[in-house]
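cache lookup: miss for this entity combination. No prior model stored, computing from scratch. Input as submitted by user K.M.:
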Amino acid sequence: MGKQSDALFQRAQELIPGGVNSPVRAFRGVGGTPPFIEQAQGSRIFDADNLQYIDCVGSWGPMILGHGHRYVVEAVKKASTRGFSFGAPTAGEIELAEMVVQAIPSIEMLRLVNSGTEATMSALRLARAATGRNKIMKFDGGYHGHVDSLLVKAGSGGATFNVPDSAGVPAEVTKLTISVPYNDLEAVRKAVDGDLAAIIVEPVAGNMGCVPPAEGFLQGLREICDSNKSLLIFDEVMTGFRVAYSGAQSLYGVKPDITTLGKVIGGGMPIGAYGASAELMKMVSPLGPVYQAGTLSGNPIAVAAGKSTLSVLKNSSIYADLEERSAEFAAGVTAAAAKHGVPVTLNRVGSMWTLFFNEGPVTDFESANKSNREKFARFFHLMLADGVYLPPSQLEAAFFSAAHAKKDILQLIERSDRVLKKIAWEFEK
Ligand code: HOZ
């Protein structure tokens, strides 16, 4: 990287594990030194050496409007002049809750928390309390934050660094977690039993790279949960207000019992939420016996960023535009790969996508892991050198924003074409 980033990374490694506050950022999935980011605007990020990149990470999902959207910046400025945190209720929390409830019919009530991890952890607690059961089912390569009981065959960083089951989690906890292959209803049916409280699923997997649900998969999960009297939890931290305003549940027409949210609903500020029917949510303290709390929950600045982001997204043509541009990108890159004879699979749902370096189809963790990681790393670094910032792991999703103009997409296709030509020359001859 540039001199400044290199120096900062050296300093950071003395003080912070791996020099980063979230493992994948350390670039260990691709090698090399991460650029230290100084600022961002629209579709671009700028590092400490003033190098500019087209940003395809978007802070891992939240920045659907692009960086520094005028309206969101104004809302945050205004909120911050009123106070950073009160630890007391505010009108903004009701307004954000109303926006979520209006957008997502399966949610009648919700609780705001500070991260996706808190949201999924709380959703599991609620599901266990509501059913009086103990077991949880998840999917191989599915990642729902660093909740103890969900770090079993987990995707994202764990899978990137080959530690899908974290140390420090008691076996007594993980023995209550069943993990089966994504998109495999037969495996789900075989593993279900009378002690299963809930199935938690990313309705579009985003932490083994982007892997869409097979036709009928989510409907099948709904039916299995209904007949087994288990709850269905959609982890929409990534997909909520991303693949559609009303989330993946509206896109695929399946209603979960509990939904977790994060990322976009905070517009880039730390936030999370879990929501469900009023009947279920009334089990949460102080109304019911499920305890969950947080000093910074409903933080007024995060709420202001979230509200302004959702109000720009609502009734806009943003989702149609994102679909059009993302489809153009996918077609351009796939054509370039075919032209140069590089086998790839580009998985995409709306503005969420991953380029895998194998023939595919990529439908689950096993097929995602068949991607040639060496080629991915080379692709990543050549793109980075050409001013494109991609997720530094094969097992993560990339994101476009409303600020990615047609011009950006054309540049991305052109740069991918150039890079794929080199990859073909280096690997395929
Ligand atoms: N595990 C996160 C995305 N799946 C990455 C978070 C981060 O590094 O910011």
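stored under new cache key. Residues 70-314 form a domain with the Aspartate Aminotransferase; domain 2 fold (CATH 3.40.640.10).
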